[in-house]
Write a structure and sequence with these properties.
Elements (H helix, E strand, L loop, with lengths): L1 H7 L33 H15 L11 H56 L1 H12 L8 E5 L2 E5 L15 H13 L1
Antiparallel strand pairs: 1-2
C-alpha cells in the first residue's frame, strides 16, 4: 500500500488516512523540453533504460532476415497449397473428362443423324434397286448385262459369260503345273 501512495505523491511513512482525495497532477499538456525523464509508468522507464544501453553498446543489434512470423506464414501457405493441390487436380481432370465426353456426345449425335438419313435412303425402293444392280450385279428380266473383263467388252445373256477357250478337264496337279509355267513366263 505504501508503494501506491509513493507513486501518487504521498510519503511512504504516512499511514493515516485523510478524507480528502489524493493530489492529482495537472492534465494539461507539457512541452517536450520540460518533460522529466522519470515517468510513473514502469514499462516506459524500462524502455528508456534499454535505449540508453543499446546506444552505448559497441555493435548495433541486427534484425534477423527471416522472422518467426514469416516462417509460420510460409508454413501455413505451403500447407494450404498442399491441401488444395489434390482437389484442384481432380477438378481439372474432371473438367477435361467432361469436355471429352461432350465431344464424344456431339460425334455420336452426328453419327445418329447420318444413320437416320441412310435409313431413309434405304427405305426408298429406287435406291435399293440401284444398289442391288451396282453392288451385286443384279439385272431385271429382259435387261442385257454387259461385263468388261480385262478391258474387253463381252456380251452375253444375263448371268453368263462366254468362255475364252476350249473347256478341257485337266487333273488338278496338271492344272497346278500349267499355272506355274504360265506365271513363270
Amino acid at each position: 500500500m505504501s508503494n501506491v501512495r509513493a507513486r501518487r505523491g504521498g510519503s511512504p511513512g504516512d499511514s493515516r488516512r485523510t478524507g480528502r482525495a489524493p493530489r492529482v497532477h495537472s492534465t494539461r499538456p507539457v512541452p517536450a523540453g520540460l518533460r522529466s525523464s522519470a515517468t510513473s509508468r514502469p514499462g516506459a522507464r524500462r524502455g528508456m533504460r534499454r535505449s540508453v544501453r543499446s546506444t552505448t553498446a559497441t555493435a548495433p543489434r541486427r534484425r534477423p532476415m527471416v522472422t518467426g512470423r514469416a516462417v509460420l506464414l510460409g508454413g501455413l501457405v505451403l500447407l494450404l497449397a498442399l491441401t488444395l493441390a489434390g482437389p484442384i487436380r481432380q477438378y481439372l481432370a474432371g473438367q477435361a473428362e467432361l469436355e471429352q465426353l461432350a465431344a464424344e456426345g456431339r460425334e455420336l449425335d452426328q453419327r445418329a443423324v447420318e444413320l437416320g438419313e441412310q435409313l431413309e435412303r434405304q427405305s426408298d425402293p429406287v435406291y435399293a434397286q440401284r444398289q442391288a444392280r451396282e453392288r451385286l450385279t443384279y439385272v431385271l428380266p429382259g435387261d442385257r448385262l454387259v461385263v468388261v473383263v480385262d478391258g474387253e467388252a463381252v456380251e452375253g445373256d444375263a448371268g453368263t459369260l462366254a468362255s475364252a477357250g476350249p473347256d478341257e478337264q485337266l487333273p488338278w496337279y496338271e492344272g497346278l503345273m500349267q499355272s506355274l509355267a504360265d506365271a513363270d513366263g
